[in-house]
Specification:
Elements: E1 2-8, E2 17-23, E3 30-39, H1 42-48, E4 65-72, E5 84-87, E6 90-92, H2 98-101, E7 112-113, E8 133-137, E9 142-143, H3 150-153, H4 159-169, E10 177-181, H5 185-196, E11 200-205, H6 211-217, E12 221-224, H7 228-232, E13 238-243, H8 252-255, E14 258-266, H9 279-283, E15 288-291, H10 297-310, E16 316-320, H11 324-332, E17 339-343
The structure holds NADP nicotinamide-adenine-dinucleotide phosphate (NAP) and zinc ion.
């Protein structure tokens, strides 16, 4: 075992604090990684505050991890010491179920998440990326191109794949009109990726101050979603809308913007139910309401390679570990452009 320093929440209503804990020595199929940067996802806040009701403490959050390989097990293939690598939201799955066979490990009933999830090897809990070092089975380690800035690539491991996967699943491409709801960590990646896939992209935001940024990021149009007149101009015109909002809100406002057979895909996970949809908005144009969870490992690698090819990373604000509690408050106020990334050298 080796001692590692991180930041942990010990309770759902206290601040994160320095925390010392042990990581296993690499097993034959493990990769040991020195963590250089870790993104701050809104899911970290939901879980630290037990908003989904499934939190176990102490919790070391963080699932947008990038770093360098420091040690490999005897059977590791494809990674060597010094490589730039990433770890996203998952570190294990059963490997034999239909979901795993189709490279959709995120839907495996035994998926092991990077933190706040039982660790089958230690019998304890997984601890995430707000820490100096992690040991992960090679099947859940991603390769990161030297072309990408490492800090700005960190959010690709969750915000990137969570938006890429539904855009691919619903075959977004040239000629499609695509909406992205919410310009935060996920939303800004949704704009960049949908734009790179060739779609006509419309951002829906509650923040008039973000209009210019949205266009710079690749939005063709921006709609202030609190203005019913602006929304009404887009009735029944979208092929696909990706909704990243983290609080309950009226979904009918967005389902009504879909064409016949269009899809509204929810990726935001509020702690309370949405007040809608009403069935009428769905049946009259055979519209679809769907959800999507991160993405499988193979698709995450595909997304990272797509980002390297198209020179796509996140817009980030780098913070030292010690500022994490203030950063959470700013995320809750939508006051981040557009993802905080922790520099673990500060710890
Ligand atoms: P974020 O950075 O906080 O972005 C959320 C955005 O929602 C905000 O920037 C804001 O954009 C908008 N918003 C905030 N309050 C709103 C309100 N009252 N009404 C309407 N819009 C509001 O969060 P994130 O990290 O992108 O995560 C978003 C959600 O996705 C979270 O619930 C997270 O847990 C979830 N998530 C899901 C998956 C998955 O696999 N499905 C993966 C990762 C994260 P504007 O200022 O532009 O309105
Ligand atoms: Zn996340």
């Amino acid at each position: 075992m080796s001692q590692t320093l991180g930041y942990a929440a010990h309770n759902h209503n206290t601040s994160l604090e320095p925390f010392s804990f042990e990581r296993r020595e690499p097993l034959a199929t493990d990769v040991q990684i020195e963590i250089l940067y870790c993104g701050v996802c809104h899911s970290d806040i939901h879980q630290v505050r037990n908003e989904w009701g499934n939190s176990s403490f102490p919790m070391v959050p963080g699932h947008e991890i990038v770093g360098k390989v420091t040690k490999i097990g005897a059977e590791v293939k494809g990674f060597k010491v010094g490589d730039n690598v990433g770890v996203g939201c998952m570190v294990g799955s059963c490997g034999v179920c239909p979901d795993c066979h189709e490279d959709l490990q995120q839907y495996c009933n035994s998926a092991e998440f990077t933190y706040n999830s039982p660790d089958k090897i230690s019998g304890g809990s997984h601890y995430g990326g707000y820490s100096k070092q992690i040991v992960v089975n090679q099947d859940f380690v991603l390769r990161i191109s030297d072309k990408l800035d490492l800090a700005a690539a960190a959010p690709l491991l969750c915000a990137g794949i969570t938006t890429y996967s539904p855009l691919r699943h619903w075959k977004v491409g040239k000629g499609d009109k695509v909406g992205v709801v919410g310009l935060g960590g996920l939303g800004h990646m949704g704009i960049k990726l949908a734009h790179a896939m060739g779609a006509y992209v419309v951002l829906f935001t509650t923040s008039p101050s973000k209009v210019q940024d949205a266009k710079r990021l690749g939005a063709d149009e921006v709609v202030i979603s609190t203005n019913p007149e602006e929304i009404a101009q887009h009735i029944a015109s979208f092929d696909f809308i990706l909704n990243t909002v983290a609080v309950p809100h009226d979904l009918d406002a967005f389902t009504s913007l879909l064409k016949r057979d269009g899809t509204l895909c929810l990726v935001g996970v509020p702690d309370q139910a949405h007040p809608s949809p009403s069935v009428g908005h769905l049946i009259f144009k055979r519209r679809n309401l769907a959800g999507s969870l991160i993405g499988g490992i193979k698709e995450t690698q595909e997304m990272l390679d797509f980002c390297a090819e198209h020179n796509i990373t996140s817009d980030i604000e780098i913070i030292p570990m010690q500022q994490i509690n203030e950063a959470y408050e700013r995320v809750l106020k939508s006051d981040v452009k557009y993802r905080f990334v922790i520099d673990l050298a500060s710890l």
